[in-house]
Amino acid sequence: MSLDGRLREFVAEHGERACIVLKAIHEESSLGGRLKLGDFSIKGLKARLKSWGVEYNPTPLLLKLEKELNLIETSYRSTTQRWWRITNREALERALALCRGAPRSGDIEDPMVRLLRIQFHALRPWEIIETLRRIKAKDAMSRSDLELLRRIVFNELPLLIELKGKVESLGYDSELREEVSVVERIVEIAEELVLRGSRRPEAPEIEVIASKEEPSYY
């Protein structure tokens, strides 16, 4: 079987994990401007996966890509490092096209898009925006409203902002346009409410009455 055929089987068997590892390999191997002992290292690959919120160990899939598919081969190995070289970059890119749901396989969505969407909905953004709108509709915020707003601003909102930054840095703005728009709306309403609740009360005017008597210094 050809390498393309083996990669199709690899993606079909391992699903999202296979696609995420292939994408990480491609992006790590595209980096330049540093001393490299191969196209990518296990340390760099794990760091990239972690930056995407992916915690599993890619080593088993890397070994399969090397031993069974011959897509990669070890270029350097020591007690502290391991590097690989990609033997066929074109085949890797065709496999990524398969993962992205190109005409070869229209039923497979980019796994990173799916992961980001899952993380987004896990934060319940629709509930957050409805809560903020309810508070905004009031003439004045109660103490409980302020506490709820503070919790959203310090707990959920930083996670949503981080997720939005990840979407934009990975170039998935178009695929997750609706999710990005919701985060921007949440930020807009939250900022308006926080500024409304933090306004300083106006200091009362103090009427100064000048004394007609001459000051006494003794």
Question: How would you sum up this structure, described in words?
Answer:
The protein has helices at residues 3-29, 42-51, 59-67, 89-99, 111-122, 125-136, 143-169, 177-197; strands spanning 40-41, 72-77, 82-86. The chain folds into two domains: 3-99, Arc Repressor Mutant, subunit A; 111-197, no CATH class. The chain contains eight helices and three strands, in the order αβααββααααα. It is elongated, with a radius of gyration of 28 Å. Helix 1 packs across helix 2 (42-51), helix 6 (125-136) crosses helix 7 and helix 6 runs parallel beside helix 8 (177-197). A hairpin with a 4-residue loop joins strand 2 and strand 3. A three-stranded antiparallel sheet has the order 1-3-2. With 218 residues, it is mostly helical. Mean pLDDT is 83; it is low at 102-108. The N and C termini lie far apart (110 Å).
Q: Could you list some keywords that capture this structure?
A:
218 residues, mainly alpha, Arc Repressor Mutant, subunit A, 2 domains, 3-stranded antiparallel beta sheet, 8 helices
